[in-house]
Amino acid sequence: MTAEEEARRLDAEDPLPTLRGEFLVPPAPGGRYAEAAYLAGNSLGLQPRSVAGRLREELDDWARLAVEAHTRGRRPWVDYHELLREPAARLVGALPHEVVAMNSLTVNLHLMMASFYRPAGERTRIVIEDSAFPSDSYAVASQAVHHGLDPAETVVRLKPRPGEDNLRTEDVVAFLEREGGTVALVMLGGVNYLTGQLMDMPAITKAGRAAGAVVGWDLAHAAGNVPLRLHDWDVDFAAWCTYKYLNGGPGAVAGCFVHERHVRDASVPKLAGWWGTDPAVRFRMDPDIAPPASADAWQLSNPPILALAPVLASLEIFDRVGMDALRAKSERLTGYLASRLAGIGARVLTPPDPAARGAQLSVRVEDAGGAVRRLAEEHGVIADAREPDVVRFAPAPLYCTFHDCHRVAEALAALG
Ligand SMILES: *Cc1c(COP(=O)(O)O)cnc(C)c1O
Q: CATH topology for 80-319?
């Protein structure tokens, strides 16, 4: 059997057949294949076919009912965000009142830090990873400045050991045990955007909280990628975007988690807006806010329905499949790609242990930008370059196939 036949056999026999047919897969540049092998779902997930109809319904309600659609639409807009609550809670392992869909990711990180980054006395530092996504770096540095602190002293950037690509959990825990008394906030990525490393969130959360720090997670690359148990892990807060693995569309509305112990604590300071008051009294237009004991208390504005509709459509797919089945398929797909990449001698920097990675393999390739262009133009493989020398491949398990992974290996080998 050729490698290609083997890949097709794996697709045909997988216990979770691909849901590719429910997504709009872009055409492959180059002409050799009809469809792209789309490995960039960690940047922007593909469009579910169900999205257009959902948007059309909201546009129709706007046309037919205008302001009345707030209360009489087929999904009344005043509490539209409620429709996302249960699916989002299942996705991240939260209680329903611990999650809310609102804003965008970086905005939510700031709202969370406004509440939970409270530098005082010796305890002022914010711990991130050295390879944090730039938005997170900028956000924490600006929070330090906002509190009158020097970011160079306030922000700690954890680095892998010399010669290694990934952080070791034991090193993060040891740092927190040693210096935790000066740490106000630990805010790492659950899955690192660059290396694809899946952090040991329960262990790091435990160590951070034991050190007296607040622990928040950026789940941009974790939500919809790996199973999460935010409530049980005792995470203080988390935020995630919905346009990567969650396929919610460009700039789609983000998610936010606040642990139950905080939502019940009225003394937690919040930046407030009218959507954060109890809906039962919202339209009394009182001058004083009456926040509910839920993550909704962090909402500011009335939500953008047209940006929520695709997220709702997408979450329905995750609900139908379930994160555990999806993760199992993801491990099979990524494992297959890893073995094919090993076969061609690719230099993978993502951890080899399936438990320490999600659906992404990052490969060192000289001139990453040029390589990604050639992969697309010559092979119809869509991947993503992080200059100077990292190409990221994400076999998103809802719509990527073993055959796509086969195409990646063939294409990378052909680059030489
Ligand atoms: C994608 C990503 C972002 C993007 O932030 P937005 O506010 O959605 O533009 C931020 N942080 C991480 C870790 C990311 O992976």
A: Aspartate Aminotransferase; domain 2 (3.40.640)
